[in-house]
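pinging the channel bc i need a second pair of eyes. not urgent but kinda urgent?? the chain im working w is below, pasted from the shared doc
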Amino acid sequence: MIDGILLLDKPIGITSHDLVDRVRRVFKQKRVGHTGILDPLATGLMVMLLGKGTLFSQHLTGSNKRYSAILSFGKATDTFDSEGIITREQDPGNLSKDRFKAACDNFIGDIDQLVPAYSAVKLNGKRMYKAARDGEILPEKYKKVSIYSIRIISYDWPDVSIDIQCGPGTYVRSLAHELGQKLGCGGYLKKLVRTGIGDFKLNQAIDFDKLEAEVGAGEFNSVKPLADAFPDKPTVVIRSEYCKSILEGKPFIKRYLEQTNYRGPGGCLCLLLGPEKKVLAMATLNYSWGSFSRLESRDIIGKYVRIIDEGHLRN
């Protein structure tokens, strides 16, 4: 079984689940996951998790996202994107770039965002898209999301290209729809490319055809080691004689530590590494780096978040 992180450039026209199935077939293993879906019409970065990489899912799914999007105004659709049925059509007029930017500013920050009727969110125990397809009239449902920035890339009204940085769970198609409502002319998402997830970028990703050829040749160069799962987090190298103590869940004491690039405050998430930089566990450190020198060898310096055992040393 291959353990690692894989950055894929998702093509248009397939679901995220389809992509997972393709990766399973290529690597001939069932244990494959991802860190956030993309709609079939969207393309761009998918962070795939292989083998024990799936144990990072909860933490990576919560990473911030970045998108490049084209929004079109003068029409609204039931799905909030170009795939849906037009529900409204109106002359968008000639809107200035400054007025559009002012409208965007209303959506910056922590907001209550309208959830698309055609979404996988559950309402009364049923997926909303299934209820919508069955012709059920759904009440409006909102969720808390965070939008950090909306930058205009090109302005060719009624089409506008934007770069958006946001928190997890944000619907860019809802942003397009609600901007259309705000401007009084309707709007929908015309094109979407995910360009970033946390510290991972689209220009680091490989397309599926190249991946298939690479693995078919017996090469796995595109698979990142689990130690690279959190580029922005510190790592702690554990003395080899204490690796099994970590895997057995014994208290994480200072004596175990061999070296670290940690220089931060207490409460920081880090990866504990064993031989050959294999990940033993995720942990949070109790103390700031400056406090380490004052601790005794048996002082507990951290708390385990998840035992990983990438090197399969527990047996």
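so The chain has three domains: 4-63+199-226, 65-197, 233-307. and The mean pLDDT is 91. — does that match what u expected or am i reading it wrong
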